[in-house]
UniProtKB/TrEMBL annotation:
Residues 570-589 are annotated as: Disordered. GO terms for cellular component: cytoplasm. This is WD40-repeat-containing domain protein. SUPFAM superfamilies: ARM repeat, Putative isomerase YbhE, Tricorn protease domain 2.
Length: 1192
C-alpha cells in the first residue's frame, strides 16, 4: 500500500525582503484575530492582530495568479470550531486554508473558464446547515456552486441573461443583480435522486417568482461595482460615483437613498463593515488616488454623515491598492495598502502599509495613521538585498541562485547553516541567473515533465536574464564557456529524447522570452543551431518524431514552425500545411495534442506553459539521489528559498545504514557511527524540527538522566535552523514566520494541534531511528510517553487525524510511532475533548457518508481513530455508535481498494474482542479468507504479513470462533453451511476459499500451534469432508491438504497419519480417538478404552496398529484395526463408526512425570516408549498378555 507523502518544508525568511511593489497586494480582509493579505504573485500573508503591532504568522503559497477574493468559513475540527479561509485567484483556482496552522486543506483548479470576480458562501436550510455551498461568479452568465465541505462541484448554475452579481439573502436564498438593474430571487433546493442515484441529494437553483424587481441604474453614475446585503432587509448597490440603499419589504425592492461619492476618480473598491447586534453598517469606498470615504448606514436604511479618511498627503503620490476595515469595540480599525510613487527620478517606488483607528462620532477626525511597513519586511542579511531567483537539485545538493552566484547546500547545511554553503560558484556575467535546470545525458531519457531526469551523466544548465547559457558538469563542478542564444531572459531548457535522430538525441532545446530557441550539445557545450523568434512571441511547446531529426515549434500566438535539421549543420524551415494553427484546431493555449498525436508527434510544453492541469501537483518538484530533499522552485523564484524534507526517505536511508551495521562481526561495532552521512542528516532534521532540544520536546524526571542524555546527544548545538512550514493539499507549501514558534508559549506545540502533531510525529520518528542507529532503541518507547505527557500537562492536545494518516505507513518506525502516539493521545483525552472528537469523526464513518464521499481521506481516518477508541476504551462510546463503527470497518474490509482493506484488516485484529459482538464474525472471517485467496500478482508479501498478523490476533482472542469459521470455509467455501449460502457459491469460488482457509490453518499451526489445540477436530472434520471422492475438489485440494496434515502431525502429539493406508488418527477428546480414512472421506473407527486425552499417537509400519500413551495414568495402549467384514462389527445403527477397544493396556515407566514422551517402533510388533531417561520396551504388541516388556 502506498503511504501518504511525509514532507516537511523548511524556508529562510531572513533573506527575503517582502514588500510591495515587489509583490503587490491585491486584496485584504480582517478576520477574528488575523489580517489576511492576497498578493499579486498568488501568495497569502497572514498577520496576527492580537497585539497593537501586526505580526507575520505565515506565508501561504497555493496560488500561481493574483488573489482576487477572500472569504471566511466556520468549520468543525476535532476539538473546536475554527475559522477557515477560502481564497480565489484570477484563473479560477480555489483554496481552503486553516488559519490556525496555515495549511492548505483542499484546492480546486480552473473552477470557472472566465475571469473570476468573487465568491459567496451560502448556508443551506437548517436540516443541511452543516453543508454550506460556495458560489464562484465571474465575467460569465454561469455561476459555479461547490460543496464547501469537499469543494466538489454540485451545480453549474446557468440561465442568467447577463453577468450576475449574487448576494446571499438568507439560508438557501440568493438574489442576483444584472447590469441593467434586474433583480431576481433564487432558492437553493435539494432533491433526492431515485434509486439510480443511490439516494444522493442533488441541488438545483429555482427561480423565486415572488422576488423579481427592476431598479433604476443611472448610467451617469458609472458601472456597478458591487451588490451587498447590509441587514435582514437592507441592501446597497455601489456604482462608480454613488452608493444607493434599498429595502426589501412588502414584496417590493424600494430605494431609500442615493448619496454621491466624493471621490474624484470614482470608486475602485469597497467594503461593508457590519455592526454586530444592531441593524447598522459602515459602507467604505476608496479610489486609487488615496481618497477614502465611509458612510454610516442607519437602521432605517438611510445614510448618516459621510467620513473622509485621506491618507497622509505628505508621503508622496499614492495609489491605493486595497483597504480592510473591522470594528473594534466602539471604533473601527482600518488597514490601507498603497503604492507610493517616487518623488525624484533616482528614488525607487515602494509600497506602504498604514493602520489607524477612527470613530464615526468624530467623522474620522481622530484618525492617526501609523506606518506598519516592518510587518511586511523581513530583515535581510545579504548584501544589496539580493534575493534567490531559482533553484535546482544538482550533485545531490540544493543549488540556489543569488544574482550571478550559485550556492550549493547539502540537506544539513540548508537546515542549520544556510549562510555557510558547501560550495559557491560565481558565474562570469553581469546579468542575474534566472534558470537552473538539471539534466542527465548518456542513458535513456523519457519525455514529458521528467525529461532529462532519468540516468546518465549529470549537468546543470544555467540561464541568465540577458540570454546567456552556462553548463556545469558534475562531479567536477567545471563551468563551461558562455553560450549566447538571445538578448532576452532564458525561459526554458529541456533535454530531447534519446530515441530521436542522430543530431537531436541527447541535445538540449533552450528558449528565451522573445521566442528564440537553440539546440545545444550539452556534452560539448556548444550551440548547434538557433531558430529565430516569431514576432517576439514566446515559445509554448516543441514536438519531435521518433528516429527523425525534425522539430516542430509552437508559439504563443498559435503559429507553428517545423524545422528539419538533417545530418548537416544548420536547419531547414519547412512550410506547414495550411490546416495547422487554424482556429478550429485550437484547444487550450499552446496545446495541439489532438492533431499532433495523430501525425506521430510527441509534444512537450515548456517554461510557464508547462503547467498543465494533470501535472500541477508535480510542478517544480525535483529530488536528490536518495530522495531526502525536494526542491520547491516556485517559492525560490519568489525570493523564499524553500526545500521540503522527506522524513520517510531520511529514515529509510538511516535504516539501511543500521541494517549494514548490524551485519558486522563485533557486537561493539553494530551501530552507526556519529559522522555517517545518514546519521548527520537525521540529526540535522531533528534539530530543525525541535530547535529547543530535549527541553522543548519532553518533561524529564530525575531518574530519566540516562535517557535524556542519550536523546540530547542526537541534537546539534550550534545551529541557525530554518523556518518550519507545512505541505498541504495539492503539495501547496505554507511557511510559518520565524517569530511564530518563538513567541508561542510552548514552542511549536502551541501553534495549532495539526502543527503539533506533524512536528511531534516527525521528531519522534527521527529520534526512534537515531536511537536504533546508536544502539539505544530500548529508550524509544519512554521518549514517546514523555513527549505526549508534556502535551497533556500544557493542554496542547495534538490532532489525532495526523497520527491516523500515518497509522499504516510503510516505514516501520513511522508506523510504530504513529500508532503509539494515537493510542496514548486517545487514552489521555479529557471527557469533553473525547466527546467532541467522537462527534467530529463520526460524521465521516463509511456507514454514514454518501457513496460519492466514500473515498475521502477523512473516511479512513475516522475508522482508524474511532476503531482504536472502542478497541482500547469500549465503555467510552454508546452502543449504537459502536455498531456503526463496526459496520464501517466491515465496509472497508469488503471494499475493492487495497488501502482500505489493509486498514480494516489491522483494525479487525487489534479490536477483535470488541468487534466480534458488533458484527457478524463469521462473515468477517469469510471476507478475510477471500482476501487471502487473491492471486500473488495483486497480493504483496507485505499485505500477506498484515493479513496473517490479523488472523493470529483473532486466534489469540477467540480461537474456537476462528476455528469454526475456517472449518466452514474449508468444507463449504462459504461462511455458513446453510443451503441458501451454499447455493450462491460457485465451484471455482468454493475451491479458492477452501484452499485459502487451509493455508491460513497451516500458517497458524506453524506460528503458534497451541492456538488451535482445542479446535483440531473441527478442522480435521472439514478437511475430511472436502476430500469426498464425489465432491469434485479432491484432486485439486490434495497438495494443500498434504502440507496441512504434515504440519499438524509435526505440531500436535494428538494426531498421527499413516500415508500408505491414508488413515488419520486424532485424539478428539478424553477417552476417544477417531480414525479417518482419507481415501473414502469417512470415519472408520472410534478408539476407546482410555480415560484421559491420548497423546503421542503412532501408527505401526504396516498401519495395522495404533499406539498411544495416557500421561495422567502413565499407561500405554495398543489398538489393532480389523479389516474385511469384521470391520463393521461394533458400528451403531445411526452410521456411527465401529468402536475398538485396546488390544493391550500396560503401564510404562515415568517416575519423573515428564510431559514429552517418544514412541518408536523398533520392529513390526515391538515398541519402545521413552520418558526422559527411562525407556520401556513392549514386545509382541499383537499379544493380549502383558508379560512381554522390559524397562531400560
Amino acid at each position: 500500500m502506498a503511504s501518504p507523502p511525509f514532507y516537511i518544508p523548511f524556508a529562510h525568511w531572513d533573506s527575503t525582503p517582502f514588500q510591495p511593489p515587489y509583490t503587490s497586494i491585491t486584496t485584504s480582509k480582517f478576520l477574528a484575530e488575523w489580517l489576511v493579505l492576497g498578493l499579486a504573485n498568488g501568495e497569502l500573508l497572514i498577520l496576527s492582530t492580537a497585539t497593537d503591532e501586526p505580526i507575520p504568522r505565515a506565508r501561504l503559497c497555493g496560488h500561481k495568479a493574483p488573489v482576487v477574493a477572500l472569504e471566511s468559513l466556520l468549520a468543525r475540527t476535532e476539538a473546536i470550531e475554527q475559522e477557515l479561509l477560502l481564497s480565489l485567484d484570477s484563473v479560477g483556482t480555489l483554496c481552503k486554508w486553516s488559519l490556525a496552522d496555515g495549511r492548505c486543506l483542499q484546492n480546486v483548479y480552473l473552477t470557472i473558464s472566465t475571469r473570476p470576480r468573487g465568491l459567496r458562501i451560502v448556508k443551506k436550510q437548517k436540516v443541511d446547515a452543516k453543508d454550506p455551498v460556495v458560489m464562484i461568479y465571474g465575467a460569465s452568465t454561469e455561476i459555479l456552486v461547490l460543496n464547501a465541505e469537499t469543494l466538489e462541484t454540485v451545480l453549474l448554475w446557468t440561465g442568467n441573461l447577463d453577468w450576475p452579481l449574487p448576494v446571499v439573502s438568507g439560508r438557501s436564498r440568493v438574489m442576483t443583480l444584472l447590469p441593467d438593474g434586474q433583480i431576481q430571487g433564487w432558492g437553493l433546493n435539494s432533491r433526492r435522486l431515485e434509486e439510480g442515484g443511490r439516494g444522493r441529494l442533488a441541488l438545483a437553483m429555482e427561480r423565486d417568482h415572488t422576488k423579481q424587481f427592476l431598479v433604476e441604474i443611472k448610467e451617469d453614475m458609472g458601472r456597478i461595482r458591487g451588490f451587498e446585503r447590509t441587514s435582514e432587509k437592507g441592501y446597497v448597490i455601489i456604482q462608480k460615483t454613488s452608493v444607493s440603499s434599498y429595502v426589501l419589504e412588502d414584496a417590493k425592492f424600494a430605494l431609500k437613498e442615493t448619496v454621491p461619492v466624493g471621490l474624484e476618480i470614482g470608486v475602485a473598491g469597497y467594503q461593508i463593515v457590519p455592526k454586530k447586534g444592531i441593524r447598522k453598517a459602515l459602507v467604505m469606498v476608496w479610489s486609487e488616488d488615496g481618497q477614502t470615504e465611509a458612510f454610516e448606514l442607519g437602521e432605517n436604511a438611510t445614510f448618516g454623515h459621510s467620513i473622509r479618511l485621506p491618507l497622509d498627503p505628505t508621503r508622496g503620490k499614492r495609489t491605493v491598492i486595497s483597504i480592510a476595515c473591522t470594528r473594534q469595540e466602539d471604533k473601527y480599525l482600518i488597514a490601507a495598502f498603497s503604492h507610493l510613487g517616487s518623488s525624484s527620478g533616482r528614488e525607487r517606488a515602494h509600497g506602504d502599509f498604514l493602520m489607524g483607528l477612527f470613530s464615526t462620532n468624530t467623522a474620522g477626525a481622530d484618525i492617526e495613521w501609523v506606518e506598519k511597513n516592518e510587518a511586511l519586511t523581513s530583515s535581510s542579511s545579504l548584501q544589496d538585498d539580493i534575493t534567490s531567483s531559482c533553484s535546482a537539485i544538482f550533485a545531490n545538493m540544493l543549488a540556489i541562485a543569488y544574482g550571478s552566484n550559485i550556492r550549493f547546500h547539502s540537506l544539513s547545511s540548508f537546515l542549520l547553516s544556510y549562510h555557510e554553503p558547501i560550495k559557491e560558484i560565481c558565474v562570469p556575467t553581469t546579468a542575474c541567473i534566472c534558470l537552473l535546470k538539471r539534466v542527465r545525458v548518456g542513458e535513456h531519457v523519457v519525455h514529458g515533465k521528467d525529461a532529462g531526469i532519468k540516468g546518465g551523466k549529470e549537468y546543470l544548465i544555467v540561464g541568465t536574464t540577458n540570454g546567456e547559457l552556462f553548463i556545469i558538469e558534475a562531479p567536477s563542478f567545471q563551468l563551461s564557456k558562455r553560450l549566447s542564444i538571445s538578448s532576452t531572459a532564458v525561459c526554458s531548457a529541456n533535454l530531447l529524447l534519446s530515441d530521436l535522430g542522430k543530431r537531436l538525441r541527447f541535445t538540449l532545446i533552450a528558449s528565451s522570452a522573445d521566442g528564440t530557441a537553440s539546440i545545444v550539445d550539452v556534452e560539448r557545450a556548444r550551440i548547434m543551431v538557433t531558430f529565430p523568434s516569431h514576432d517576439y512571441s514566446p515559445l509554448v511547446s516543441y514536438a519531435t518524431k521518433t528516429a527523425q531529426n525534425i522539430i516542430l515549434l509552437t508559439y504563443e500566438d498559435y503559429i507553428r514552425r517545423e524545422w528539419d535539421l538533417g545530418e548537416e549543420d544548420g536547419g531547414v524551415f519547412k512550410a506547414p500545411p495550411s490546416s495547422r494553427g487554424s482556429d478550429r484546431d485550437r484547444d487550450t493555449l499552446g496545446t495541439y495534442g489532438r492533431d499532433l498525436a495523430e501525425e506521430g508527434w510527441r509534444e512537450v510544453c515548456v517554461g510557464k506553459f508547462e503547467l498543465v492541469e494533470e501535472d500541477r501537483e508535480g510542478e517544480g518538484d525535483d529530488t536528490n539521489g536518495d530522495g531526502t530533499i525536494k526542491n520547491c522552485e516556485r517559492l525560490c523564484e519568489r525570493g523564499l528559498p524553500t526545500a521540503s524534507v522527506n522524513v520517510r526517505a531520511v529514515l529509510d536511508v538511516l535504516g539501511h545504514a543500521v541494517k549494514i551495521a548490524k551485519e558486522r562481526t563485533r557486537a561493539s561495532e553494530r551501530r552507526v557511527v556519529g559522522n555517517h552521512p545518514a546519521f548527520v542528516t537525521a540529526k540535522s532534521l531533528l534539530t530543525a524540527l525541535v530547535p529547543g532540544g530535549t527541553a522543548e520536546l519532553s518533561d524529564w524526571e530525575e531518574d530519566d538522566y540516562e535517557r535524556q542524555t542519550s536523546v540530547q546527544s542526537l541534537f546539534f548545538r550550534r545551529k541557525k535552523p530554518a523556518v518550519l512550514g507545512q505541505m498541504g493539499a495539492g503539495k501547496n507549501v505554507s511557511i510559518l514566520a520565524k517569530e511564530a514558534p518563538n513567541e508561542a508559549e510552548d514552542g511549536i506545540s502551541s501553534i495549532s494541534p495539526t502543527v503539533s502533531a506533524c512536528v511531534l510525529l516527525a521528531a519522534l520518528s527521527t529520534i526512534g531511528g537515531l536511537l536504533e542507529a546508536s544502539g539505544n532503541g530500548e529508550f524509544f518507547s519512554n521518549v514517546i510517553e514523555r513527549a505526549l505527557s508534556r502535551l497533556v500537562i500544557t493542554k496542547n492536545e495534538p490532532a489525532l487525524g495526523v497520527f491516523a494518516k500515518y497509522w499504516m505507513d510503510e516505514n516501520p518506525i513511522i508506523r510504530a510511532t504513529a500508532r503509539k502516539c494515537l493510542s496514548i493521545s486517545i487514552g489521555t483525552l479529557s471527557e469533553e475533548t473525547r466527546t467532541n472528537t467522537i462527534a467530529y469523526w463520526a460524521r465521516f464513518l463509511p456507514a454514514q457518508v454518501p457513496p460519492e464521499l466514500f473515498s475521502s481521506k477523512e473516511v479512513v481516518r475516522s475508522v482508524i481513530i474511532l476503531g482504536q477508541l472502542i478497541a482500547d476504551h469500549p465503555d467510552s462510546v454508546e452502543q449504537g455508535l459502536k455498531k456503526c463503527i463496526a459496520l464501517s470497518v466491515e465496509l472497508l474490509l469488503g471494499d475493492s481498494n487495497h488501502s482500505f482493506q489493509d486498514t480494516a484488516i489491522e483494525l479487525v485484529g487489534h479490536g477483535w474482542t470488541t468487534f466480534q459482538s458488533l458484527f457478524d464474525p463469521f462473515e468477517v472471517i469469510h471476507i478475510l479468507i477471500r482476501i487471502s485467496a487473491s492471486t500473488m500478482d495483486d497480493f504483496s508479501e507485505a499485505r500477506r504479513n498484515t493479513l496473517n498478523k490479523c488472523i493470529l490476533e483473532i486466534a489469540e482472542k477467540n480461537s474456537p470462533l476462528l476455528g469454526s469459521g475456517l472449518a466452514n470455509n474449508i468444507s463449504y467455501g462459504s461462511s455458513s453451511s446453510q443451503p441458501a449460502a451454499l447455493a450462491a457459491v460457485s465451484l471455482s469460488t468454493a475451491l479458492g476459499v477452501s484452499l485459502a482457509a487451509m493455508r491460513i490453518v497451516t500458517m497458524i499451526v506453524r506460528e503458534d500451534a497451541i492456538l488451535f489445540r482445542d479446535v483440531l477436530s473441527l478442522i480435521i472434520t472439514a478437511v475430511v469432508k472436502i476430500l469426498d471422492p464425489n465432491g469434485g475438489l479432491r484432486e485439486k485440494v490434495m497438495p494443500t491438504i498434504t502440507e496441512l496434515i504434515n504440519e499438524m502431525v509435526d505440531a500436535y502429539p494428538t494426531i498421527a497419519f499413516h500415508r500408505p493406508t491414508q488413515r488419520l488418527a486424532l485424539s478428539i477428546s478424553p477417552g476417544i480417538i477417531m480414525i479417518y480414512d482419507l481415501k473414502t472421506s469417512a470415519e472408520v473407527n472410534a478408539l476407546q478404552g482410555h480415560h484421559s486425552l491420548a497423546n503421542f499417537l503412532t501408527f505401526s509400519i504396516d498401519g495395522k496398529f495404533l499406539v498411544a500413551v495416557d500421561l495422567e495414568e502413565n499407561m500405554f495402549f495398543v489398538w489393532k484395526f480389523v479389516t474385511g467384514i469384521l470391520s463393521f462389527i461394533g458400528g451403531g445403527n445411526d452410521g456411527a463408526p465401529p468402536i475398538l477397544l485396546p488390544k493391550r493396556k500396560e503401564p510404562f515407566s515415568n517416575e519423573r512425570n515428564v510431559g514429552i514422551v517418544e514412541i518408536e517402533w523398533t520392529g513390526e510388533r515391538s515398541v519402545k516408549v521413552t520418558a526422559g531417561d527411562q525407556s520401556t520396551v513392549f514386545q509382541n504388541v499383537d499379544s493380549t498378555q502383558g508379560s512381554g516388556w522390559n524397562i531400560l
